Amino acid sequence: MYFDIDVLNVEYFSDTYFANPTLVGDGSGGGKMNLEKLAQILNLLDKSSKIVGFSIAEYLPFSAYKLQELFKDFIFSKN
């Protein structure tokens, strides 16, 4: 199974390409799906088929990157 994070609305999940206002994209626009709808779809697929693999595409952890940038210049000493 293949899941593209970009189907999610940035209001509900912010680690998508379209959540970053500095990225231009291809003009296709951001996703509209909320997390409840995604859970319903995944549960339906799980009940109706045998899932043998799961791939998540275009997950962009902007918050983690911001934290990395924040802490990159700190040197934490051991007391």
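Next protein, fold it too.
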Amino acid sequence: MKKLVGSILVLMLVLCLGTVALAEEKKAVPDSKSKPVAAEKVAQGTEKQGIPVVVIHKGDDVLGGTLALKLKEHFRKSVLFKLAGKDVKAVRINVESRSEFTERPEIGSVYSVVWTFAESEEVVPFYLKQELGLVSSHNVENDAAALMNKTDKVAGEYKYLFE
């Protein structure tokens, strides 16, 4: 009988310790829906600083679309720029592209970039600068970086428009 009572006590102790350990483990691992308090305050209280830009692409070629997406990706990662909505005072980068050869669109695309400035989408934009270029699958990344650098120069030249 003593062995039976001892076994039951040991079993109850193991179960209690297991339940306590499980409860501690649940406290340590937050569920996927909850956010840490500090991160929530940071997300609500701060907004990315930088020059607001809007990238608008027109064209049905793959390489031109890739160039516009890479350009947006560079702006999203940059600390100098922030992607903005169309109703915000921003530099608008209008990228229009066409396949260089319609029979072989994978070879390259011709693109035109026009930088404008507008208070919002409803306001007539001011012309700032334009450029023509050729893009291929080999230099999409470099062309996007070069366009971002030119956007920085244009924004610096016309920074008084943001005041």
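About the second fold: Helices lie at 2-28, 37-45, 62-77, 140-157.
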